[in-house]
């Protein structure tokens, strides 16, 4: 007897990173050509020692760190985010407009659960972040692809043509995953105006905001005194402070929206990780200079990627920034098959564009995402040496 399976879950694709890891099974990598894993955008090093000591101290001395906490997060962390974000974005954000989640993926699922149900539609620029698409599929919400073309910058006028009575939200990620591109402030403002005109939510995922190459605030959305009528911002502490295993994210939205979010979070996790929140708060208060150094290193690696593709014959760099380079390969081989060959023939693990585009997408078959944040400049040089040696 086969037990029932939710058809929406059955129709959802397998997690791409897990699928790619299965390509490694049974592969023996030569001693002189070890695997270079450029498939996942997550720090592989632990947090800095001072932050680990702060976590250890809290675990040993703060009894409350081991108990249930507030569903929407520690008040001190919500206060800190509101204060720092208000200064960084030049707007007014209250602590009651901030919620803490178990990572940014949970922030997305929580927000989307308040916005859309089965049969509704949400506009996602392509290439899209696959976990966003997966959650919509699980909920039987239709992901409406918004093509971005070679520049990977979405166009609000093109999005307007996709809006129907079933549309509930538009989702933007900047700096972008998987494309790496940084959306201009004017682009975000145009989408804000579009969303407001149609009574939609504009969700802006800024997981990689700490690695934006631009100085100053990246957009003016929070300077609008009525920003919370339309804007929902998502953030992750995983990248800036290497807290991936602690799962700490954030939502910035209206208090009315967060009251609905609270229902979801109380049902799913009851409260975010206490130690993770303590770590995030300590990092915000003490690690600004350390994060600046991390940003400088990522920007140096970004430049190495740009320079490498300028010399790699036939390849086209579509976008590069934060943790990612998104490229077009020159071969008459679909990208999913090509990436599997790269594992065995080049000892390189990367993700094909087919994982970031709708099924059957011709663009996806030509595209590849390279997550370079965990590879130093010497490693990046080796990646290009191997790619240059490939002969299909």
Structural summary, described in words:
This protein has 392 residues and is of the alpha/beta class. The protein has 2 domains: 7-46 and 290-389, Aspartate Aminotransferase, domain 1; 49-287, Type I PLP-dependent aspartate aminotransferase-like (Major domain) (Aspartate Aminotransferase, domain 2), CATH 3.40.640.10. 40% of the residues lie in helices and 15% in strands. It is built from 13 helices and 13 strands. A 7-stranded mixed beta sheet has the order 2-8-7-6-5-3-4, with helices on both faces. A 4-stranded antiparallel beta sheet has the order 9-10-13-12. Helix 6 links the parallel strand 3 and strand 4 (142-147). Helix 4 (75-89) packs parallel to helix 10, helix 5 packs across helix 9 (255-268) and helix 11 packs parallel to helix 13. It is globular, with a radius of gyration of 21 Å. The termini are far apart. The mean pLDDT is 96.
């Amino acid at each position: 007897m086969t037990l029932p399976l939710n058809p929406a879950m059955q129709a959802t694709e397998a997690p791409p990173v897990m699928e790619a890891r299965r390509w490694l099974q049974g592969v023996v990598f030569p001693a002189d050509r070890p695997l270079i894993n450029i498939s996942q955008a997550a720090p592989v090093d632990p947090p800095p020692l001072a932050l680990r000591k702060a976590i250890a101290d809290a675990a040993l001395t703060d009894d409350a760190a081991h108990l249930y906490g507030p569903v929407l997060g520690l008040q001190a962390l919500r206060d800190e985010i509101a204060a720092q974000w208000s200064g960084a974005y030049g707007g007014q954000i209250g602590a009651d407009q901030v919620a803490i989640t178990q990572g940014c993926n949970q922030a997305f699922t929580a927000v989307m659960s308040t916005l859309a149900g089965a049969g509704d539609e949400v506009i996602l620029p392509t290439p899209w972040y696959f976990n966003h698409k997966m959650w919509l599929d699980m909920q039987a919400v239709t992901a409406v692809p918004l093509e971005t073309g070679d520049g990977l910058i979405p166009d609000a006028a093109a999005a307007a043509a996709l809006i129907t009575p079933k549309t509930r939200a538009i989702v933007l990620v900047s700096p972008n995953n998987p494309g790496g591109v940084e959306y201009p402030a004017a682009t975000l403002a145009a989408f804000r105006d579009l969303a407001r005109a149609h009574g939609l939510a504009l969700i802006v995922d800024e997981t990689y905001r700490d690695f934006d190459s631009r100085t100053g605030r990246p957009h003016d959305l929070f300077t609008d005194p009525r920003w919370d009528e339309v804007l929902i911002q998502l953030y992750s502490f995983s990248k800036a402070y290497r807290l991936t295993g602690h799962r700490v994210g954030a939502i910035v939205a209206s208090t009315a929206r967060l009251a609905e979010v609270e229902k979801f979070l109380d049902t799913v996790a009851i409260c975010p990780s206490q130690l993770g929140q303590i770590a995030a708060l300590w990092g915000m208060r003490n690690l600004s200079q350390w994060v600046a150094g991390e940003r400088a290193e990522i920007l140096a690696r970004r430049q190495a990627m740009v320079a490498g593709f300028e010399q790699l014959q036939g390849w086209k760099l579509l976008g590069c920034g934060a943790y990612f380079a998104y490229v077009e390969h020159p071969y008459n081989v679909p990208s999913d098959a090509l990436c599997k060959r790269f594992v065995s023939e080049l000892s390189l693990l990367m993700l094909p564009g087919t994982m970031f585009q709708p099924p059957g997408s011709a663009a996806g078959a030509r595209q590849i995402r390279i997550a370079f944040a965990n590879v130093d400049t010497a490693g990046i040089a080796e990646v290009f040496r191997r790619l240059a040696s490939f002969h299909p």
